[in-house]
Request: fold
Amino acid sequence: MNLLSAVADGFVEVRAHAGRTVLQTLGVVLGVASVVSSMGLFAGGRAQSLKYYSQSGGVLKVTVFPKDVRTVTTTARERASRGLTIDDMDAIKASVKGFDLIEPVMTRELQIRTATLTRAYEVTGVGPTYGELQELLLDSGRFINENDVATREAVCVLGANRASDFFGTLDPVGQRIRLGDHLYTVVGRLTYREFYWNKQENYNSLDWMNDFIIVPVTTLQGRELGAGERKIGNIALRLVDRPTADTALPALRRILLRRHGVEDFQVYARYERMKEMDQQAQVYDLTFKAVGLISLIVGGIVVANILMASFRERVCEIGVRKAVGAKGWHIAVQFLVESVVVSGIGGTLGLALGVGFVHIIAWLLDQYAVLTPGMIAAAVSCACGVGVVSGFIPAIIAARLDPVVALRYE
Amino acid sequence: MSDPLLNLSGVWKTYDAGDLAVHALRGVDLVVGRGEYLAIMGPSGSGKSTLMHILGCLDTPTKGSYLLAGEQVANLSRGRLAELRNKFIGFVFQSFNLLPRASVLRNVELPLLYGGLGRDERLVRAREILTRVGLGDRGHSRPNQLSGGQRQRAAIARALVTEPALLLADEPTGNLDQTTGAEVMQLFDELNRAGQTVILVTHDPAVAAHARRIVRIVDGLVEQGEEAAA
Reply:
């Protein structure tokens, strides 16, 4: 007896009892659907985060902020904090390994004057690798370079929104603009960037890139803040790779704590955020999988139950099969195949339903959904597993049936 | 009779029915040679069904010896019994017992499937035997599309497809009218003339009359063996 003809026989049985099969598959359908849809939604959320990260400096980006003393309960020492300084950054550069890019970031609100408007804007002072660190893209011109920083050049790079605020559709590169008390030459314009977490949301999560007015950090320090100013807004860093994170991040925190004596700073590492998210997702994932598993178990019991009913109906047939030479395992395989065929149909329907669910929920919540081959494999193997497990007991009972008893059975 | 096909000696079959043991067979001795045409007769409750089950390797004796083609059947495993049934025995039942959802051809090839034959050989042999019983054109019908006589002939084809040493028929005309019953009996006669060993189990003297030897069984004992007038 070959498997193919056993599967064909299984389908004949299933077709002969279409209504019963529908009932039989229901539990498996719902179980697989819930597993697939939960996996799809979480995979969707994770993929969105990764996409956002990859468009704004990657998972390896780390930022050190001074702790915001106005919004959190703080100790007197924390309130006395002087924030982050250039010296902190130099200390990090000197003694913490595992970061390939380290840039200070200073911000200051300055009065901007162009031919058409006068308004206060936030100006950001950074070093030459800041563009690479944040993955800023240039539309035209160039970014701040080493030379600009060394000679405190009066140059600036404009985000797309600012460029059009000040110059309309005109290419701003080469134009001059007054920031505070000095005239600056525009050397570059950033590409317009956008990212929406939800499909219909109108908040552009990358708009901060479009709002940039970037100047060399030394220029901002020297010309606008006074050369003695050591204080910086935040420090942007990039990890060499993921494995270094586990040693580099604690070292970073340690050195800052040693220098400040108190935790008046915050280290925000996307790598850690990702790990947290994955842990959270694991909890949700587990919950949904448990729910799916319970429906699969219930589905399996239904499959087993109906298989037992079909067994009782076919006792005589089993007797005949045995009379003409079927061995126990022939009968067992027949029942198992039937159960797997039924569960397989259930699994396929469940997969289709789950995919539908994912897209409907994603559409209702304006979320993105993702389906991976792994999920499809999980759904199919779940269904087949249920088939084998639930078919097992009826198969054993059928296989052990005494042919004399079976033939007498009416 | 040298090298008999079947040789039963002192066969007992005892069932436990609650406290008391029921002796369905109480020491049956029976020898059947190759090419014989035998009828086993007896009233209901006489033990003839039990005897048939043992002859057909569906059941094993509680006590005694049963040699089938020289092999001791009395204490074989279920798997080995299934192999013997597949190889040596063809069953014909009163109620035909065709699988309702399978085609006639599929029903007939079933024993070969369990015997492990390949698809092509199964189909060739199943078609051949269907032609022999006069159903060459009905292979793709369902059993319920056939008349009673045709169904029994399909069942006989299924019994014969493995070329068994023994054809064992249990009341083969019990569900048929007289004319079709006679046709089926004619088929058994022809098969026996061609050398097939046939055992009929029946309570109908008209059916038993086709056999060349009749064995009567009463209260679990073989009463007599007589040569029927052919």
About this structure: Helices of chain B lie at 48-55, 78-88, 104-114, 119-132, 148-160, 178-193, 205-208. The radius of gyration of chain B is 17 Å. Chain B has one domain: 6-227.
